[in-house]
């Protein structure tokens, strides 16, 4: 009969043999089981995804700081995220709804109510997700101004500067030419920390956000300080199909204004490798897929950090869009 010492000796020898097998003899065979960082262990603990290469490739000491000639670094990103009207997904945020339409196709009261209900659904989801990360966020929703009629509503694919100019045109229709003065007014009036403008468009299109960025400093901070998004009441997907507005789309764009990145594959956003990695790490992220049922979406840990309610891990910067 074997003694306890003999059992221990066998266990130690087996452990050493396994260590040598994994690290020296056949490391590639076990590579996919090096599971490191996941958003939700209950979801991901059975998925074999190699995230080692992400951690190895990203060195926080190599990330350029704000003010250097390399202004596409994450430190520069974090620096400007807090300069616009929507600094983070926390505190009290004022959502300013502004309804627009093209000539001859105005909003009905029912259509406006439906669109606003999607905004409320998005706000409720964002509040729940903030709580999951130990943060509280509160929203106050304001319909500001009458329906604004325009000749043409620019779409997602239009040039960025055209979109910026369009938002400024809508903003000026509110009789405000100074963005900072408007934001200050709304913050004081509604006792809020952040201000988001949602331009609700009665049209078919792909919604887009216009967050404050470093390029806006070239125009002057009072010209693009107020952060906003255009939300189409009929959603057009990337494959060309359409559907009524999703609450998840509204939440997605609000998160952009607070600093979030997209994770899907598209030129200037994520290449195939990065998008594939995102699919494996956080397949239910709202920055990857906008589902009809918003509660089937998740707020992933990278996005939580970007919007100011989560902690940082160095490998997050690997997903910074390359535009």
Low-confidence spans: pLDDT under 50, at least 5 residues? 27-78
- Radius of gyration, taken over Cα atoms and rounded to an integer in Å: 23 Å
Q: Decide which structural class fits the backbone.
A: alpha/beta
**Roughly how many Å apart are the termini?**
69 Å
Counting H and I runs of at least 4 residues, what is the number of helices? 10
Q: Tally of extended strands? A: 7
Strand content: 15-25%
What is the overall silhouette?
elongated
Most strands sheet: 7 strands, mixed
Mean pLDDT: 77
SSE succession:
HHHHEHEEHHEEEEHHH
Helix content: 25-40%
Could you characterize what this model shows?
With 323 residues, the chain is an alpha/beta fold. Helices cover 36% and strands 15% of the residues. α5 links the parallel β1 and β2. The longest helix is centred in the middle third of the chain and has 24 residues. The protein is elongated. The chain starts with a helix and ends in a 17-residue tail after the last helix.
Highlighted features:
7-stranded mixed sheet; 323 residues; alpha/beta; elongated; 7 strands
Summarize the helices and strands and which ones pair or pack.
Layout: H1 4-25, H2 41-44, H3 52-57, H4 74-81, E1 91-102, H5 109-132, E2 137-143, E3 148-150, H6 160-172, H7 179-190, E4 194-205, E5 208-210, E6 227-236, E7 242-244, H8 247-257, H9 272-281, H10 301-306
Parallel strand pairs: 1-2, 1-3, 1-4, 4-6
Antiparallel strand pairs: 5-6, 6-7
Helix pairs in contact: 5-8
